[in-house]
Amino acid sequence: MISAATLSLIFGYTATVISIIGFQLKKQWQIILSQCISNLMVALSYIVLDFSNMAGGIVCMVGALHTFINFLFFRKDRMPPKVIKYIFLILYLSSAAFTIYLAGKVNFPYDFIPPVASIFFLLGVSTKNPKTTRGL
């Protein structure tokens, strides 16, 4: 039987490979779809370990939902409404605050890396230009 740690590593490595392949694709919707799948795999890697790591999984699930909604718009060659960007900005920051709340203390500067990275991710997947997405 495969241990939870091994299964988590498999999900993590698979997510990394999918992400690397995704950034080589040409169309924006393809890149966004690969990011969605990659986020789901990372979320699963957190969840498989145990529920104490659920906060990290929540951030990745928010990212997966965000990229899936963007995928639906980009697939039809349309931009998502700006309100979606603001909603996910609030969700990313809330999930970071939830992570700090679960920890019971602020671990400076490490607790501030995920919200900053999430904002860059938000900007990268909210543009129509694949070069910008690859750059962020």
Throw out a few tags for this protein.
single chain; mainly alpha; 76% helix; 0% strand; globular
Which range best describes the helical content: under 10%, 10-25%, 25-40%, 40-55%, 55-70% or over 70%?
A: over 70%
- Overall mean pLDDT stands at 88
**How would a crystallographer describe the biggest sheet?**
none
The low-confidence parts are none
Strand content: under 5%
Q: How many β-strand runs? A: 0
Count of helical stretches? 6
- Supply Rg: 15 Å
Distance between the termini: 39 Å
The helix/strand class is mainly alpha
Order of helices and strands: HHHHHH
Q: In terms of quaternary structure, what is this?
A: single chain
Overall body shape? globular
Plain-language structure description:
The mean pLDDT is 88. The protein has 136 residues and is mainly α. The protein is globular and about 40 Å long. The chain starts with a helix and ends with a helix. The chain is built from six helices and no strands.
List the helices and strands and how they pair.
Elements: H1 4-22, H2 28-49, H3 54-75, H4 82-103, H5 113-125, H6 130-135
Helix pairs in contact: 1-2, 2-3, 3-4, 3-5, 4-5
Short synopsis of the structure:
By secondary structure, the protein is an all-alpha fold. The protein contains six helices and no strands.
